[in-house]
Amino acid sequence: MIGCYKTSIVYALTAAAVLWLTGCVAPVERRIRADQERFDSYPADIQENIRAGRIEPGYTREMVRLALGRPARIFTRTTEKEIREIWVYTYLHPRFSVGVGGTVGRGRTMVGTGMDISRDYYPEEVMRVIFLENQVYAVEKQERP
Predict the structure, then answer these.
(1) What's the CA gap between 27 and 22, in Å, rounded?
(2) Which of 3, 7, 9, 48 is spaced 20 to 30 A from 144 at the CA atom?
(3) How many distinct structural domains can be found in the chain?
(4) 57 shares a domain with 125
């Protein structure tokens, strides 16, 4: 019983240390704190959108970076008339697989199952932000079913 108590204390202290080290601050708040002066210069409605992770056409690259962070990829689309920069944002989730197998032989039948959650994550594209010069021209969002 005492061992369980000690283990619980260790887990609680570890959790407290992690929370203290990370500051219990959401990533958007960390980005805002890192660039507080610029954030404070924006109107209240834009500040609210940035805190909520929303962006709109007309926003600058700095506003988008504060709201959404760094993109996973950046593309450049060049046409005869203009050059557009496209920031791609992704959602990372683990790969999951299930397997079933079996064998029959020598009077025995064996069946086995397996399940794996991969340690590597694969990205699923969820948003593209298209810039024309230094402003958001369009936002494309992929709806998740």
Answers:
(1) 10
(2) 48
(3) 2
(4) no
Same domain, 86 and 66: no
84 and 63 in a common domain: no
Q: Is the same domain home to 94 and 145?
A: yes
Tell me the DSSP string of 55-88.
--TT-BHHHHHHHH-S-SEEEEEE-SS-EEEEEE
The reply to whether 11 and 63 lie within a common domain is: yes
For residue 44, what are the domain limits? 1-70
Q: What is the 3-state secondary structure (H, E, C) of 9-31?
A: HHHHHHHHHHHHHHCCCCHHHHH
Q: Digits of tens for pLDDT over the chain (145 positions)?
A: 455 555 555 555 565 555 444 445 688 999 999 999 999 999 999 999 999 999 999 999 999 999 999 999 999 999 999 999 999 998 866 655 566 666 666 767 666 666 665 555 566 788 999 999 999 999 999 876 6
Specify the 3-state DSSP secondary structure of 142.
Answer: coil
3 state SS of 106 = coil
